[in-house]
Amino acid sequence: MQVQDDVLTTVADWRRAGKDVAVATVVATWGSSPRPVGSMLGVSADGQMVGSVSGGCIEGAVVTEALDIMAGEPPKLLSFGVSNEQAWEVGLACGGTVEVWVEAVA
Predict the structure, then answer these.
(1) CA–CA separation, 71 vs 92, rounded Å?
(2) Which of 28, 48, 68, 87 could form a disulfide linkage to 92, CB 3.0–4.6 angstroms apart?
(3) Statement: residue 85 has pLDDT above 70
(4) In whole angstroms, what is the distance from residue 85 CA to residue 87 CA?
């Protein structure tokens, strides 16, 4: 739990500093997944990041959604999936699905 604790501590520090922030959390996986359920990524409106939900292969899309949510969009459940054939192209070891919940932190 050390990594999640680091994410939550950093996000709390950003909020205390007056920054808008969002947290993304892996809530479900099927097949291959580079990060387990419970993995977290914190994002600040000024582009800082802490933690990881994917080891890099979907992080860009998650950050984009987090920025939109901080700007007023509602929280979202994101689903990313690839076939075994496409998996290597996006950095997964083999096919799988990852669901990530993204929400702003008040």
Answers:
(1) 30
(2) 87
(3) no
(4) 6
- DSSP H helices in 1-106: 2-16, 59-70, 84-90
- Domain containing 101 equals 2-105
User: pTM for the complete prediction?
Assistant: 0.84
pLDDT 10s digits, 5-23: 799 999 999 999 999 999 9
Under a CB-based contact definition with an 8 Å cutoff, are residues 100 and 78 in contact?
A: yes
Tallying the residues shown for the chain, one arrives at 106
pLDDT band (50, 70, 90) for residue 30: confident
Q: Which of 66, 75, 69 is nearest to 43 (CA)?
A: 66
The helix/strand/coil state of 23 is strand
How many distinct structural domains can be found in the chain?
1
